[in-house]
Design brief:
The chain has 5 helices and 10 strands, in the order αββαααβαβββββββ. It is of the alpha+beta class and 207 residues long. The chain is globular.
Length: 207
């Protein structure tokens, strides 16, 4: 199989992946990637670079040392701000990609949209009802893009999301009242599938 070029990658994403909207970074197409050396990356988000580049330019302009208020408010320097934009995050080059596939760790958009808000401060816990009637518990601090899945299930097996819930090792579904700062004591007996780390790849012509 020949290596996919940028146009091939964009066509695959447009034809097969529903984009996930992000209010800060814009549209993201979630997929899996094989690199040219055979490395498999199960979780990659493809974006157009314009949104993040414009954000960086704006922040840099606002926070120039002679007129910025960022340092006074937070104690973080202009150097640290620039460093955050240019050295953090996982990024891959488009020319290192051999081919792109759908990711088995990305919830379908209609399922993703059912996840609502924080359960406790900095934590969102929810359960998924599978097509066979079983419940699977999930949780994340801040990242929603990809989630681990139990063996023998795929994201396409999810029927609906039950927000602010968790699932015990016995398979019992329990409600987690929204608002308390701590998780219920029963969480120690819960099985929670967490978010997965991911890479990003920026394509100029991905609109």
């Amino acid at each position: 199989m020949r290596q996919q070029k940028t146009d091939d990658i964009i066509k695959f994403l447009k034809d097969n992946i529903e984009p996930l909207q992000d209010s800060v970074y814009g549209l993201g197409y979630r997929a899996s990637v094989y690199l040219t050396d055979g490395t498999f990356l199960p979780c990659v988000i493809f974006r157009n670079p314009k949104t993040i580049v414009d954000l960086a330019i704006g922040r840099f302009k606002e926070e120039q040392p002679e007129k910025g208020i960022f340092k006074r408010k937070s104690g973080v320097s202009y150097y640290d701000l620039v460093k955050n934009f240019v050295t953090t995050g996982n990024c891959i080059n488009e020319y290192d990609i051999d081919r792109v596939e759908k990711s088995k760790f990305a919830f379908p958009l209609k399922i993703q949209k059912q996840i609502q808000g924080e359960t406790t401060m900095g934590w969102t816990g929810f359960a998924a009802k599978m097509k066979d009637g079983k419940y699977v518990g999930f949780g994340t601090n801040f990242h929603w893009e990809f989630f681990n899945m139990p063996d023998n299930y795929s994201v396409d097996d999810i029927e609906e999301i039950i927000n602010h819930s968790y699932v015990l090792k016995t398979g019992e579904l329990r409600s987690h009242r929204q608002g308390p700062l701590t998780r219920p004591e029963e969480y120690k007996n819960a099985v929670v599938y967490r978010e997965r780390p991911y890479f990003e790849c920026y394509l100029d012509n991905l609109l």
